[in-house]
Specification:
two-stranded antiparallel sheet, alpha+beta, ten-stranded mixed beta sheet, 285 residues, 2 domains, globular
Length: 285
């Protein structure tokens, strides 16, 4: 077992590397600009074009927000959630969701979890639950590395050092189940697909965090809470054909090692430890 069933498609990554090399060495043949090969690459035309394409793919959250809107609307239509609203960039969280019980869940939308942006969020006072939702559309990325980086390197340190409570993580987007990121869940049972507009989605990967923030003296080793205790994640799980093996539990341990506060992250699924860190110092900012 691994931290997530998703993994890189090695064939796709090989093709990406090969095509990138072709672009770097043959781009001057794609169009006639009246430049020699040397002048073409020294002119900035190639580099500028690459940066422009990169910016067009990464600069906007519009596509991700449209995906989230469709998913939440689907859940609302089927009474898994009562209502939802986008913060529209006004706050350090992205969505407020009213649950059937009357509880309020807040969703913080992130990308691949391996960057410093993962740490930028706030839990508002009115939130009964806060979850992070990773929408990573980079088909060449490594989902296993990204999830572990998010859980241990980023989120655990932020929660412990800055006293921020996060109830869980959902890793799920429209690349899941495609050629770029094959999904073992669908390969085992194609009937678990949920179709929403143009998206054909597998069940989401869910990670449950402790209900309390780890603290050396009084709460040194809290365990991931039950799925039923985080209503928004339970709603995702039920709405999108989740099974027990799609749910992981994240435990944190904290201790002092000399002048350092250290933490260890353990991820369990089906009663089995699938990944565990060593005790790692928290880097103070």
């Amino acid at each position: 077992m691994s931290i997530t069933p998703c993994k890189k498609n090695p064939e796709l990554n090989q093709r990406i590397e090969e095509f990138a090399e072709v672009l770097k060495t043959k781009a001057h043949l794609l169009a006639d600009y009246g430049l020699s090969e040397s002048d073409f690459y020294n002119s900035g035309l190639f580099r500028g074009s690459v940066e422009r394409i990169r910016g067009q793919f990464s600069a906007t959250m519009r596509e991700k927000r449209e995906f989230v809107r469709r998913v939440l609307s689907y859940m609302q239509d089927r009474n898994y959630i009562a209502n939802f609203d986008s913060s529209g960039g006004k706050n350090r969280y992205d969505y407020t969701v009213e649950l059937p019980s009357g509880k309020i869940a807040v969703i913080e939308l992130k990308g691949g979890l391996d960057g410093n942006n993962t740490n930028i969020f706030e839990r508002p006072a009115h939130a009964n639950e806060l979850i992070v939702w990773s929408v990573s559309t980079n088909q060449g990325g490594d989902p296993r590395r990204n999830v572990w980086s998010g859980l241990h390197t980023r989120l655990s340190a932020e929660m412990i050092s800055n006293n921020k409570q996060v109830d869980g993580l959902i890793v799920w987007d429209w690349v899941c189940g495609t050629l770029g990121r094959r999904c073992p869940k669908l390969e085992a049972d194609p009937t678990r697909i949920t179709a929403i507009a143009q998206f054909e989605l597998p069940p989401p990967c869910i990670y449950l965090f402790p209900a309390t923030i780890p603290e050396v003296r009084n709460n040194a080793s809290p365990s991931g809470q039950p799925l039923e205790c985080v209503e928004i994640l339970h709603a995702f799980h039920q709405c999108f054909k989740g099974a027990a093996e799609d749910v992981s539990f994240v435990d944190f341990e904290v201790a002092y090692r000399g002048a350092d506060t250290v933490r260890r992250t353990t991820v369990r699924r089906g009663g089995i430890v699938v990944q565990q860190s060593d005790f790692t110092p928290i880097q103070r900012r």
